[in-house]
């Protein structure tokens, strides 16, 4: 991270700052932009995971199975208490393995698994953990969580098992599904909060009540080989949601849900995504940012190698009017789009409320965003859309080697107050990025863009 910051600071010194306007930041040169990277194999992450798994070295490990605390595992009996007791034990001894045995299904209610724990805990989920399916029975004290883990240090989650949220009735009672339902929040299946040096790998998450996996206020988290699956029309079932976290890696994940495959929100920096298979869903998004006039800061985000199939968006940055702060130093590269409705999109007019959003002069500033080697098919003619604020325009948007086509049709780029440049082959043409007329003085100019049409409320 420091290197990235230093890099940009140097650029500020080296490169002429264009004019004296508040919103114009320095101009990046193509070569310089490409050399910027989120560090591969961050030392802190490597250190945290430099220890063997219990299956390869079970000798020194202390197995604490939910079965030995009375869990039944028939999918019907309530095993919540057994899980809680198992946690208390496993968390209190060094080199423990919290074990959910293979071949059985454990019904567990909303539970907080709190740390800090003794050294080198492994949470090994080989069997299935299933949530009660009836919203009416949900613990009213924990409306937003199901399996919530906090204050963990150097813990590994693994085991090849399944975590299934039994979300059907939650989706039916969502106001997204039926407008006469009240809008209320549903639980996140798996939450990792206030933690450091945690690895989550080789697990399946399915049919969550709302978001599948949320990582918040954490550092040095590595997520790999997750399979996340929910129906395309299940409301707000984001795959992985990251907020207020730094140094997060998400790799080799296959995600198909009813919302964003991966969403990245306020307070996230230095995050890398690699080898992501996304679809169905709403794509890979930064945002939404700046809701209710809030300040958001997101920096140094890289997506490298992804395939998006039949998603509503491809790679996206979305922010509300009235927000402040910034999203910058973002790179999306080596992405294949298959029939994606909005393959490349920046939307500073994101509005997802029942009433229309008022135009405001402040916005979350979006700059230094690179899209490189992105190809495939667009479902709509507007393959690239940069709908930026008149008063806080997007700057330093860089496109390189883009080829987005539409079956039996042509594609185009829409810009409003987006400034940047392109090189290599760029189809559709992105001439409109060269427009530099947005200085905040013409408030009527933003007319013409259409706001995202599907409904989306949370976040
Ligand atoms: C736990 O789940 C069971 C089965 O769905 C339910 O009957 C019970 O009320 C739940 N308990 C709490 C505290 O949520
Ligand atoms: C929506 O909910 C209302 C009230 O609960 C119900 O009467 C109606 O049948 C529902 N509509 C659909 C399409 O499910
Ligand atoms: C945004 O993130 C910062 C940094 O973590 C945090 O202090 C702030 O409260 C967050 N703002 C909102 C609106 O969540
Ligand atoms: C955001 O700020 C605008 C302009 O000051 C104000 O009209 C609006 O009520 C604010 N919205 C919220 C949710 O605070
Ligand atoms: C461009 O991206 C595709 C994935 O869509 C990848 O297969 C290819 O190797 C990339 N090309 C370069 C030059 O990196
Ligand atoms: C494109 O055109 C071909 C040949 O006319 C036709 O078979 C195909 O269905 C069309 N595809 C779409 C998406 O319109
Ligand atoms: C503002 O933008 C509108 C729409 O593009 C244009 O018609 C008008 O002439 C512009 N006004 C100024 C002062 O530039
Ligand atoms: C907001 O601004 C856009 C473009 O300047 C305009 O088309 C739209 O009507 C405005 N909306 C409201 C609610 O003022």
From TrEMBL:
Its main location: secreted. The active site is at 282. GO terms for biological process: carbohydrate metabolic process; cell wall organization. Keywords: Cell wall, Cell wall biogenesis/degradation, Glycosidase, Hydrolase, Repeat, Secreted, Signal. Transmembrane segments: none annotated. It is found in: Secreted, Cell wall. It catalyses: (1,4-alpha-D-galacturonosyl)n+m + H2O = (1,4-alpha-D-galacturonosyl)n + (1,4-alpha-D-galacturonosyl)m. Its EC number is 3.2.1.15. The keyword Cell membrane does not apply. Residues 1-22 form the signal peptide. This is endo-polygalacturonase. It comes from Cinnamomum micranthum f. kanehirae.
């Amino acid at each position: 991270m420091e290197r990235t910051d230093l890099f940009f600071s140097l650029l500020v010194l080296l490169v002429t700052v264009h004019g004296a306007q508040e919103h114009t930041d320095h101009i990046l040169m193509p070569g310089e932009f490409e050399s910027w990277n989120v560090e591969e194999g961050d030392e802190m992450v490597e250190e945290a995971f430099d220890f063997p798994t219990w299956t390869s070295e079970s000798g020194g490990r202390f197995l604490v199975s939910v079965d030995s605390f009375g869990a039944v595992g028939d999918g019907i009996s309530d095993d919540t208490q057994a899980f809680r007791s198992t946690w208390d034990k496993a968390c209190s001894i060094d080199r423990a393995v919290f074990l959910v045995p293979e071949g059985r299904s454990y019904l567990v209610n909303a539970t907080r698994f709190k740390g800090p724990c003794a050294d080198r805990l492994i949470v090994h989920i080989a069997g299935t953990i299933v949530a009660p399916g009836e919203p009416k029975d949900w613990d009213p004290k924990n409306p937003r969580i199901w399996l919530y883990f906090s204050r963990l240090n150097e813990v590994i989650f693994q085991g090849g098992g399944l975590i299934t949220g039994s979300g059907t009735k939650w989706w039916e009672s969502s106001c997204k599904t039926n407008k006469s339902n009240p809008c209320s929040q549903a639980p996140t299946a798996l939450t990792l909060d206030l933690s450091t040096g945690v690895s989550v790998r080789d697990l399946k998450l399915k049919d969550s009540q709302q978001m599948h996996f949320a990582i918040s206020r954490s550092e040095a988290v590595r997520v790999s080989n997750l399979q996340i699956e929910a129906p395309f029309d299940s409301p707000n079932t984001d795959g992985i949601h990251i907020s207020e976290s730094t140094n997060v890696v998400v790799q080799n994940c296959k995600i198909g849900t009813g919302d964003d495959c991966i969403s990245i929100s306020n307070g996230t920096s230095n995050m890398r995504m690699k080898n992501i298979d996304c679809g169905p869903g709403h794509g890979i998004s930064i945002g939404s940012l700046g809701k209710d006039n809030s300040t958001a800061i997101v920096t140094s985000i890289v997506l490298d190698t992804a395939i998006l199939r039949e998603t509503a968006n491809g790679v996206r940055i979305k922010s509300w009017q009235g927000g402040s702060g910034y999203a910058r130093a973002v790179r999306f590269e080596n992405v294949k789009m298959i029939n994606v409705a909005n393959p490349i999109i920046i939307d500073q007019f994101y509005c997802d409320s029942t009433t229309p959003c008022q135009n405001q002069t402040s916005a979350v500033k979006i700059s230094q965003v690179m899209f490189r080697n992105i190809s495939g098919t667009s479902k709509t003619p507007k393959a690239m859309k940069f709908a930026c604020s008149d008063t806080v325009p997007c700057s330093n948007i860089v496109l390189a080697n883009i080829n987005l086509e539409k079956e039996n049709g042509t594609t185009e780029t829409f810009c409003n107050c987006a400034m940047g440049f392109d090189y290599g082959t760029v189809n559709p043409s992105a001439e409109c990025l060269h427009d530099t007329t947005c200085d905040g003085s013409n408030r009527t100019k933003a007319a013409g863009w259409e706001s995202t049409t599907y409904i989306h409320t949370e976040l």
